[in-house]
Design brief:
With about 260 residues, this protein is α/β, with parallel strands linked by helices. The protein has helices at about 30-40, 55-60, 60-70, 145-155, 170-180, 185-200, 210-215, 225-235, 240-255; strands at about 5-10, 15-20, 25, 45-50, 75, 85, 95, 100-105, 115-120, 125-130, 130-135, 135, 165, 210. The structure holds zinc ion (ZN).
């Protein structure tokens, strides 16, 4: 048995801790201090780290954590990310036996080129890093926006009940954009209301289901006539799903 809890870090990062009452794996430990404090408070020892990508707010705490716990660090090896001890590629499997969890590794470029995600079909869990956010998606720093679209399409085709654990609390601000480009969508209205209630009591809006993303996330809804209409009204040339996605990402960057 296991539980998954958020360890808040920086302004709006979540470091996810997969744990039982003795051991934990942490996902994207950008900062060591909150992880060490959480482990000490709960009398739990660290068994390993999972990384989705090499941005500093996801890997910045690894070195300090490894000075205390000499544990495996899983992720995609890259010259700019020297901390990975176990390289993972598309189709690889990662088994966390003590939790009965098996992950399939997905390469999901488009935020940065070597971003990976951890998907457990048996448990319906996805650690998606900075590719998919609540009602939004990551910025395109490396690779193409088309690759980002393709990566999100892969997430969109997972079972709707899949719980996505992303690394930032961005849902409320993403919904403000969703409301502008998908103004008549009642599911967006409902999610705005629910998100405001949750944030008012400092509750995390993550994880969320793929189902709610399909209903409210404009980046997974580029084919919808309402969104195509909004794009054209905003002056973008959106003739098909892919061009709509590219236009949406550009619009969101300026929003
Ligand atoms: Zn990032």
């Amino acid at each position: 048995m296991y539980d998954i809890v958020a360890i808040p870090a920086f302004e709006d990062n979540y470091i996810w801790a997969l744990h039982n009452d003795q051991h934990a794996f942490v996902v994207d430990p950008g900062d060591a201090a909150p992880v060490l404090a959480w482990l000490a408070r709960n009398n739990i020892s660290l068994s390993g780290m999972l990384c989705t990508h090499r941005h500093h707010d996801h890997v910045g705490g690894i070195e300090e954590l490894r000075a205390v716990y000499n544990v495996p660090v899983y992720g995609r090896q890259h010259k700019k990310n020297p901390h990975i001890t176990h390289d993972l590629r598309e189709g690889d499997k990662l088994s966390l036996e003590e939790f009965g969890l098996n992950f399939d590794i997905m390469e999901v470029p488009g935020h940065i080129e070597d971003h990976i995600a951890y998907y457990s079909s048996g448990s319906g869990i996805l650690f998606c890093g900075d590719v998919l956010f609540g009602a939004g998606c990551g910025r395109n720093f490396e690779g193409s926006v088309k690759e980002l679209h393709h990566s999100l399409q892969r997430f969109a085709s997972l079972p709707p009940s899949t719980l996505a654990y992303c690394a930032h609390e961005y849902t409320a601000s993403n919904l403000r954009f969703a409301k502008v480009c998908d103004p008549m969508n009642p599911d967006v209205d409902h999610r705005i209301e629910r998100t405001a209630q949750m944030r008012a009591v400092n509750q995390s809006t993550v994880p969320f289901t793929i189902e709610i993303e399909l209903a409210t996330n404009p980046f997974l809804r580029c084919k919808e006539p309402a969104i195509l209409h909004s794009l054209r009204q905003a002056g973008y040339d959106a003739i098909d799903e892919e061009s709509a996605f590219i236009a949406l990402r550009e619009w969101r960057d300026k929003f």
